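Students often ask why inverse folding is considered easier than folding. One informal answer: many sequences map to the same fold, so there is more than one right answer. In these notes we will look at a single instance of the problem. The structure comes first.
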């Protein structure tokens, strides 16, 4: 049996069949039946298997198809979503790049993790430098208004914030401003993940705002504080002074010759002068002081913490020096100068308004005292600016209605003792204030723009009076008229003088003009021309107040002048003051060498007369011989001096 496969050998053995056994028909039949059944079973199994396979294949194909459909659907979905996302991102990108905004993110430690959008505000502030750092670690940033501490506290409490303004330096040295808003970001599990937000460049807006603020507080022309911030400064000074118990001073500064500059050179030059005066002030004051411009050519300085008024005086003198330096106007050196009035807190006033008013009153007194000086407030006897306005209006009326007067002060020859001429001096008989002297109204006339009318009035009135006297005498005497600097520089002067002479019918040799040294020296070249024109009219001119200016007699050499009047400040202390004596002696000698006559002003004593006569001074004028007299008293005075016995007075001792 070993030659059959095991399975067949076992079946054959069950049927009793072996290799050796001859076939038994029944056994054979049984064998065949079994074989048949085995085939049938197999066929059935294989059928079932086929069917199962077919069904499985069909189902799997269905599944595939469905999967395919679902995948397609998914793809479409994804494509759509992606497109939407891309569109929204593009929108975001174009918003942030077209607008002035940028978008930023920070991690939980407030360090920048991204900055995108319009980052043009960060020139050189490269974004890379921001990344990984907090705002307060970036040296270019100034803290926000509330300070870094408070800002960090807000971030640490995970609060949103809106429009916090950050200022930071940009490489060109400028400043940029950003308004930044941010909100906290939380992870899905609720843990804090950082901040994100936007930033907006507000530099232009900020600068415009600052500019508006500055304009409201500062004078555009000079950059100094303006009137309203001056009042604030004084209020601060008052508060500080109450704390520290230190006095402070308000200095009211008015330029002396600003109107002349404006008239002669025009407003643009006038503006330059104001600017340069403002700069000088700014330079001359100390860090704790402040300066403001409160009107055309009016400045104020608040000078803090003075222990003694003398120190304020020193300070004022320093300011005057600075303002008195020459300015270059179209290549010419001119001195503008200033007068300063000082009011002290708390002695002179306890509020800004009062202090300013009193400093103004003091300033006016400084002007009266001869300009380029300073004065402390000393009681309410000088007019305030409102009173001056009223006064100016009534002065105008007085000129127009011929209410002014001229008094005439005789000049006496030291050689013969006779009256050689008179000087016409303005007087204003004021209805309430009495007879006002020029010092009380000439500065006012200059400030109010009335000086030319005033001068013209004096010139015409003096010519009329001189003509009258000339008709009464066989030996007529000249009348001197003072010219203000403004009148002297006016182009119409020569025509006006000639007109006044013609109208009055006065021979030109009977008119003399007195021009101050400083008026001549303001524009020496033009002065020389003007004097030559006046001389060709036949009018003689003299230098008034000689010695008070900066010029030397040598510089006067080129001017066609008839005489020099030595200022009365040199005469008053003669003969005791050695300096004044030396100066007076030298001036007389030098004037003579230039063929100029010398007149001494303000001669009050016999000793002065003697001193001057010994030095060959030609003429004197002063209370010693006569005060300025009303016109009606002049002929009698002259008559008396013509008497040799009287004329000798002042010579004998
Ligand atoms: P000034 O031209 O130097 O006039 C001389 C001043 O000295 C006058 O003052 C006169 O009164 C005063 N005086 C005369 N003798 C003595 C004396 O012995 N002792 C003292 N202490 N003073 C004496 P006044 O009249 O007050 O005039 C002051 C200034 O006003 C004049 O100075 C002159 O610059 C100016 N002024 C007067 N009238 C006119 C005018 O019509 N036009 C212009 N532009 N200025 C004038
Ligand atoms: Mg004079
Ligand atoms: Mg004089």
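Output (designed amino acids):
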């Amino acid at each position: 049996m070993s030659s059959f496969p095991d399975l067949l050998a076992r079946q054959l053995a069950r049927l009793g069949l072996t290799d050796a056994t001859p076939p038994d028909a029944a056994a054979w039949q049984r064998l065949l039946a079994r074989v048949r059944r085995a085939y049938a079973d197999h066929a059935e199994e294989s059928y079932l298997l086929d069917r199962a396979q077919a069904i499985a294949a069909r189902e799997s194909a269905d599944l595939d198809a469905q999967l395919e459909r679902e995948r397609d659907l998914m793809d479409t979905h994804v494509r759509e979503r992606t497109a939407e996302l891309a569109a929204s991102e593009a929108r975001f990108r174009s918003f942030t790049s077209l607008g002035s905004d940028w978008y930023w993110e920070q991690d939980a430690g407030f360090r920048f993790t991204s900055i995108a959008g319009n980052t043009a505000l960060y020139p050189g502030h490269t974004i890379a430098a921001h990344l990984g750092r907090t705002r307060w670690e970036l040296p270019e940033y100034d803290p926000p208004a509330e300070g870094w501490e408070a800002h960090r506290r807000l971030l640490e409490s995970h609060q949103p914030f809106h429009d916090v303004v950050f200022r930071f330096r940009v490489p060109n040295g400028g400043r940029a401003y950003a308004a930044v808003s941010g909100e906290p970001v939380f992870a899905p599990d609720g843990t804090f993940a950082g901040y994100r937000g936007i930033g907006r460049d507000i530099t232009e807006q900020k600068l415009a705002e600052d500019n508006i603020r500055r304009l409201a507080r500062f004078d555009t022309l000079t950059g100094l504080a303006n009137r309203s911030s001056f009042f604030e400064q004084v209020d601060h000074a008052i508060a500080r002074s109450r704390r520290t118990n230190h006095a402070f001073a308000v200095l009211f500064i008015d330029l002396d010759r600003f109107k002349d500059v404006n008239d002669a050179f025009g407003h643009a030059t006038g503006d330059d002068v104001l600017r340069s005066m403002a700069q000088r002030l700014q330079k001359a004051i100390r860090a704790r002081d402040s300066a403001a411009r409160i009107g055309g050519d009016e400045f104020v300085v608040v000078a803090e913490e003075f222990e003694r008024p003398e120190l304020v005086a020193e300070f004022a003198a320093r300011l005057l020096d600075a303002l008195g330096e020459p300015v270059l106007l179209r290549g010419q050196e001119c001195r503008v100068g200033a007068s300063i009035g000082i009011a002290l807190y708390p002695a002179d006033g306890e509020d800004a308004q009062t202090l300013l008013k009193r400093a103004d009153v003091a300033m006016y007194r400084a002007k009266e005292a001869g300009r380029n000086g300073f004065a402390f407030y000393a009681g309410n006897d000088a007019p305030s600016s409102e009173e001056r306005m009223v006064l100016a209006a009534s002065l105008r009326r007085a000129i127009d209605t011929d209410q002014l007067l001229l008094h005439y002060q005789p000049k006496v020859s030291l050689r013969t003792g006779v009256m050689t001429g008179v000087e016409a001096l303005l007087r204003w008989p004021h209805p309430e204030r009495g007879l006002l002297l020029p010092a009380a109204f000439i500065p006012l006339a200059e400030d109010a723009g009335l000086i030319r009318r005033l001068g013209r009035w004096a010139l015409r009135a003096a010519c009329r009076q001189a003509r009258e006297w000339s008709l009464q005498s066989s030996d007529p005497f000249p009348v001197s008229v003072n010219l203000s600097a403004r009148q002297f520089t006016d182009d119409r002067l020569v025509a006006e003088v000639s007109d006044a002479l013609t109208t009055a019918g006065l021979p030109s040799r009977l008119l003399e003009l007195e021009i101050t040294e400083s008026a001549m020296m303001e524009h020496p070249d033009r002065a020389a021309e003007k004097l030559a024109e006046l001389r060709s009219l036949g009018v003689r001119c003299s230098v008034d107040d000689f010695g008070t200016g900066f010029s030397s007699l040598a510089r006067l050499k080129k001017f066609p002048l008839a005489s020099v009047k030595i200022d009365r400040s040199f005469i008053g202390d003669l003969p005791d003051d050695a300096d004044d004596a030396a100066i007076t002696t030298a001036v007389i000698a030098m004037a003579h060498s230039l063929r100029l006559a010398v007149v001494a002003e303000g001669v009050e004593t016999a000793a002065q007369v003697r001193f001057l006569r010994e030095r060959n001074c030609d003429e004197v004028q002063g209370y010693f011989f006569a005060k300025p007299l009303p016109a009606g008293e002049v002929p009698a005075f002259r008559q008396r001096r013509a008497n040799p016995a009287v004329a000798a007075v002042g010579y004998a001792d």
